[in-house]
Amino acid sequence: MSGTDGLTELRERISLLEEQRLQLTSTHNEQVTTLEAEVARWRDEAERGEATRQRLEYELAVVKKALNTEKEAARKNNLQLRASVEKYQASNTELSDRVEGLTKTLRLREEEMLKVVSALKTEINGKESELGSLREQNSKLWKDKEQVEKVFTEQEHLYSEAQEKLDMLCIERDTQTETVCRQLKELQYDREAGEAQKCPRLHFHERGLY
Fold first, then answer.
1. Which of 59, 113, 156, 184 could make an S-S bridge to 173, C-beta 3.0–4.6 Å?
2. Do 165 and 49 form a contact (C-beta atoms < 8 A)?
């Protein structure tokens, strides 16, 4: 009877251990599913970031081309109007005020962009902290170390792509800077055109005096 009882007890212990193993396996599977969902979400975010980068690169190329065209036109106009511009320096006061306003706007936009970048860095640091916590939890439950390292390597790759998003935001900020500079060039062109219109009138009055 004692041998039978011992065998029964051993079977019960084996059954209990099997249940524990199944429970741990279920927990591991849930963790893997969660990680896979997180990886998929980061991959989707990376794809959207790549599309944004390509769009910004295209817009930047268009702006640069337009800016070069405007620079060339401004250079030609400057050669024609330089003598007249020197006679009407007093009219620059209003334009200088407008330039100062645009400069202030540009500075405010840069400050807002820095705030956005800082917020993104904070978010990334939070995600990095969460990843560290996941590493610690799975190291205690998941025996297959190579599989865990593979998953977290992918997470780190996504983190690198998130850093590229910050670079793209900097590119967008530069694009806005280019736009403001182009507006300044347009103001300079408007001022020079206005002075060119005043110049013929002045010559007409001078001929009338004689």
1. 113
2. yes
Q: Strand, helix or coil at 16?
A: helix
pTM: 0.26
Q: Could you report the per-residue pLDDT of 112-145, keeping only the tens digit for each?
A: 888 888 888 888 888 778 877 766 776 666 666 6
What are the angstrom distances between the C-alpha of 117 and each of 30, 58, 120?
34, 22, 5
Rounded Cα distance, 35 and 142, in Å:
13
User: Amino acid letter at 53?
Assistant: R
Q: How far apart are CA 88 and CA 86, in angstroms?
A: 6
Q: Dihedrals φ, ψ of 108, to 5°? A: -65, -40
Q: 18 is written with which tokens? A: 């099997």
Structure tokens at 195: 């002075």
